[in-house]
Amino acid sequence: MDNCSRIQLNTMKDLTYRQREILSFIEHHEWRNGFWPSIREIQEKFNFKSTNAVMGHLRALEKKDAIERITGQARTFRIHHHDTPEVSEMPKNASEVVDIPIIGDIAAGYPDRVEPSGEIGRLQVDIASAGFSKRNRSFALQVRGDSMVDAEIYDGDMVVVEPRDPQDGNIVAALIDGETTLKRFIQKSGEPPYLKAENKFYPELYPINDLTVQGVAKAVVRSI
Question: What amino acid positions are annotated as catalytic residues?
Answer without folding.
Answer: 147, 183
